[in-house]
Amino acid sequence: MGEETIFSKIAKGEIPATIVHEDDEVVAFRDISPKAPVHILVIPRRAIARIDAAAPGDAGLLGRLLLAARDVARREGLDKTGYRLVINNGADGGETVPHLHVHLLGGRAMGWPPG
Ligand code: 5GP
Fold first, then answer.
1. Ligand 1, closest atom to CA 88?
2. How far, CA to CA in Å, does 107 sit from each of 27, 30, 69, 70, 100?
3. For the CA atoms of the chain, what is the radius of gyration?
4. Residue 43: other Cβ atoms inside 10 A
5. Parallel/antiparallel/unpaired status of strands 26-30 and 19-22
6. Which residues belong to the active site?
C-alpha cells in the first residue's frame, strides 16, 4: 500500500483539483503544471505507490486506469489528433509523487524519444 500523498487527498476531495472523471476506482484531474495543452493525471483511488509496486491482483484496476485515460482522451477530442500516456517510475523515470498516475498529454505533437 502506498503512503498518503497529495494525490490521495485529491481523490478524497480534501484538496481541490479540476476533476474531469471520477468513478468508484479511478479519478482524473488536470495537472497543476501542464506540459502540453491537455495534461491530465489519471490515478487509482487506492494508493499504489508506483507501477513497480503493483501486484498481480491489481491487473483489473490497471486496466480500468488505462481505459479511463482512453475515455478522457476521447472526451477531450484527442483521439482525432493523437495523444501520449506516460507512467514515470522511480528517480530516473522522473517520478515525483509516489501515488501511481498515468499522464495523459495531448494538444501538440510529442517528440520521441522523451528527453
Ligand atoms: P510525476 O513527476 O510524479 O510523474 O508527476 C507528478 C505530476 O503531478 C507533475 O506533472 C506535477 O505537475 C503534478 N502535480 C504535483 N502536485 C500537484 C497538485 O497538487 N495538483 C495537481 N493537479 N497536480 C500536481
1. 4
2. 21, 14, 15, 15, 23
3. 13
4. 24
5. antiparallel
6. 101
Q: Which residues contact 23 (CB under 8 A, 6 or more apart)?
A: 64, 68
CATH class of residue range 6-106: alpha beta
pLDDT value for 1: 62
The residue ranges of every structural domain in the chain are 6-106
Tens-place pLDDT, residues 54-102? 999 999 999 999 999 999 999 999 999 999 999 999 999 999 999 999 9
- Helices within the chain (DSSP H only): 6-11, 59-75, 90-93
Strands 83-86 and 38-44: unpaired
Q: What is the pTM of this model?
A: 0.98
The protein residue whose alpha carbon is closest to atom 8 in ligand 1 is 31
Q: How far is the CA of 32 from the centre of ligand 1 (A)?
A: 6
